[in-house]
Amino acid sequence: MAKNPNKLNIPKVNMYRRPLGVCGCGKPATYEVYEDRQPHCRDCMLDAADNEVYIEVRRYDGGFNDAS
User: H-helix or E-strand containing 49?
Assistant: First the structure.
């Protein structure tokens, strides 16, 4: 079977997510914030959570003993 020449083997990269464990400020991240699980340190997580709109926050280690 011939391969499709229009499909390139380019890895998909999420430009909104930094590598696991690094916050946008450069500190080690311990929290995932927002629905797309952006890595945040504790200070940045508290800064993001300080508003009137509900946002999702969870620890990297799961935090709920749910093997996540």
Answer: helix 42-49
